[in-house]
Amino acid sequence: MSACTPPALALDFTQTRPENKMPLLNRTDTDHIAHLHMNAPERLNALSDEMLAALQEQIDALKDDRQIRAVILSGAGKAFCAGHDLKQMTAGRQAEDGGRAYFADLFKRCSRVMTGLQSLPQPVIARVHGIATAAGCQLVASCDLAVAAEGTRFGVNGVNIGLFCSTPMVALSRNIPRKHAFEMLTTGAFIDAARAAELGLVNRVVPPQDLEKSAVALAETVAAKLSAAVKIGKSAFYDQLQMPLDQAYAFTGEVMVENMLWRDTEEGIAAFLEKRPPDWQGS
User: Fold this and answer.
1) φ and ψ at 29, to 5 degrees?
2) 203-228 pLDDT, tens digit each
3) Backbone region of residue 264 per phi and psi (left: phi > 0; alpha: psi in -120 to 50; beta: other values)
4) φ and ψ of 158, to 5 deg
5) How far is the CA of 192 from the CAs of 80, 156, 184, 202, in angstroms?
6) Cys staple from 124: which of 15, 71, 190, 268, with CB 3.0 to 4.6 Å?
7) Which of 122, 117, 118, 120 lies closest to 226, judged by CA?
8) Residue 2 gets which letter from DSSP?
9) Reduced to 3 states, what is the DSSP secondary structure of residue 131?
């Protein structure tokens, strides 16, 4: 394996709160893990224009960062993320076209962030607490893995204010069975963390005091694997989901052929058979 990153590398970003110039998104890199921490607790980490820009900036940076093998996304304060910034959306309606251009651009930018998380070579783990509603629930569903604190609530409850959560529906309906997704979308009801785990929206539920430790442990497990194998596997995972069965097997067979021909894969198999740690040379 390559050398570890410095124990803790804190990075600053240009996207800040307009009112006080504090960073909206903090990043700290520790042992091949990037910690992205949404830092707008007074707005329940809403996906404002500025927050979306900060997230997109880091997605763009992480996709070529070979030192990072896993990402943890979390939120400051009492909530993970409460969805879009309704005050900004209300202001957007004041345009001459009633907000059509602003809303089209907003949902395009939001969709780019959501699909960008899945396009990253590194697995992304949502560390969720408090509430994750509307586009905040979409954010959890767009991450590859999720760990939730007991007591967390999830909802796509835009219907309660007359706005059907159509874009959050895309990620949600690809995480949980369709009838349960449709029930959440049409009733606006919350589900708790235990139910979210039952349905497949999150991987595990832990006591609040164990949330950070559990998310880090999962990230460390993923980061310890051959990162090139995880990268090719993550890409293939999402690609094959969109294919008919026969096409999916043909495609993934080609992926496995490529994977099998790597030097590090040969070394990994030899190490397993010889009952020793692998000497992986790739990143």
Assistant:
1) -100, 125
2) 999 999 999 999 999 999 999 999 99
3) alpha
4) -60, -30
5) 14, 13, 12, 11
6) 71
7) 122
8) P
9) strand
* Banded model confidence at residue 281, pLDDT cuts 50, 70, 90: confident
* Rg value, the chain, Cα: 20
Which pLDDT score is estimated for 98?
Answer: 85
Measured between alpha carbons, how far is 172 from 167 in angstroms, rounded to an integer?
A: 9
267 close to 279: Cβ distance less than 8 angstroms: yes
Helix (H, G, I), strand (E, B) or coil at 214: helix
Task: State if pTM tops 0.85.
Answer: yes
Question: Is the pLDDT confidence value at 130 over 90?
Answer: yes
The tokens for 133 are 């509603």
Asked if residues 124 and 144 have their Cβ atoms less than 8 Å apart, the reply is yes
Residues with Cβ within 8 Å of 253's Cβ and at least 6 positions away in sequence, in order, are none
Tokens read off for 144? 């590859």
